[in-house]
Design a protein that fits this description.
It is a single chain. The chain is an alpha+beta fold. 56% of the residues lie in helices and 12% in strands. It folds into three domains: 116 residues, Phage tail protein beta-alpha-beta fold (3-Layer(bab) Sandwich), CATH 3.55.50; 98 residues, Tetratricopeptide repeat domain (Serine Threonine Protein Phosphatase 5, Tetratricopeptide repeat); 95 residues, Serine Threonine Protein Phosphatase 5, Tetratricopeptide repeat. It has a four-stranded mixed β-sheet with strand order 4-5-2-6. Strand 4 and strand 5 form a beta hairpin. The longest helix is centred in the middle third of the chain and has 18 residues. It is elongated. The termini are far apart.
Length: 333
């Protein structure tokens, strides 16, 4: 589902220019039909587009501010396709298919596919099923909303997105994006919770929406409900970095130190340790009255190659120097 698409003048007279000079677009597709993706590419590029009949399927893809031909190449690589180009015409085929261009005669620059391919194998994008009306009507508001976000006009962006969501009520990604803006940029916890729940109703597998709902509920001090959504946010095979760290903060604030420690260790195993995750882990180990483990974690931070703020580095050095292990064995590094 496209969240944003930047349009401009067609590139009919600039087809041979480098990718850097071509129309740039931003797209956020969620399980969109491939032919609708190619239709968008055609609208932006101004090129004729022919697609082999064996090209089928859906696509999930998010790209921001890239040339349209780069976006097309990404789609082709993801779906095992290739393209052939001539005379402002792009033919898209599976990698195991070939295409023979027709002979050109008498200076005629028009494109005419051979009859067999045109009739049996090729599908002109204009003949594909139209993009649903609600998506077409919502797009201008989505684009205006994205532009307002870039100007940091978040209230205006949410209002524009709300108009798009009213036209396109099944857009779970848009609902969750609005939830995130309300939560992070505007501090509107109740609105964020409502939109996150709406996104989850549309797509229960949206772990990011579960995280937005959990944080909103935690900010509203509705802890039991928040915990349920936190559990949902980390229930996937590879929970996000943000979900694991946020849940660990929630657990620590509620003095559930064992749970917080487990979440941080899972974060470090899945995503690799960071300065923030290790400092949090050492802090929790101190709260659990485990000074030796905390000191070992602090030493790992000092020798981990992290860029530490000077005050944090001084604190850790002092903390390690006064640890029981160091006092018992002053020669220990």
């Amino acid at each position: 589902m496209p969240l944003a698409q930047e349009r401009g003048n067609t590139m009919r007279d600039k087809f041979n220019m480098t990718s850097a000079d071509k129309q740039r677009i931003s797209v956020d597709f969620y399980k969109i039909d491939l032919h609708n993706v190619f239709r968008l590419i055609r609208e932006v590029s101004g090129s004729n587009l022919v697609v082999h009949e064996d090209v089928k399927g859906t696509l999930t893809l998010a790209l921001t501010d890239v040339p349209w031909d780069f976006a097309l190449d990404v789609v082709l690589n993801l779906k095992g396709l290739h393209k052939e180009e001539r005379d402002n015409t792009i033919v898209i085929l599976p990698k195991d298919k070939n295409f023979s261009w027709p002979e050109r005669g008498g200076g005629n620059l028009g494109f005419e596919a051979d009859a067999n391919l045109a009739v049996q194998e090729a599908i002109l994008i204009q003949q594909q099923q139209n993009i649903p009306k609600e998506q077409l009507e919502a797009r201008p508001f989505i684009q205006q909303g994205r532009q307002a976000e870039q100007r940091e006009e978040y209230e205006n962006a949410v209002e524009l997105y709300a108009k798009a969501l009213a036209l396109w009520p099944q857009n779970a990604a848009l609902a969750n994006h609005m939830a995130n803006i309300n939560l992070v940029r505007l501090g509107r916890n109740a609105d964020a919770l409502h939109l996150a729940r709406r996104a989850l109703t549309l797509d229960p597998s949206t772990h990011a929406a579960a995280l937005n709902a959990a944080i909103a509920l935690a900010n509203m001090r509705r802890m039991p409900e928040a915990e349920q959504y936190f559990d949902q946010s980390v229930s996937g095979t590879k929970p996000s970095r943000e979900a694991l760290l946020s849940y660990s903060v929630f657990a620590e604030e509620n003095e559930r130190y064992d749970a917080a420690e487990l979440l941080l260790k899972k974060h470090n195993n899945v995503h690799g340790p960071t300065m923030e995750s290790l400092v949090a882990l050492a802090r929790i180990q101190d709260k659990k009255n485990q000074p030796d483990q905390a000191s070992a974690t602090y030493r790992g931070i000092l020798h981990g190659g992290f860029r530490l703020p000077p005050d944090l580095e001084q604190y850790i050095q002092a903390r390690v120097a006064h640890s029981p292990a160091m006092q018992a064995n002053p020669a220990q590094p």
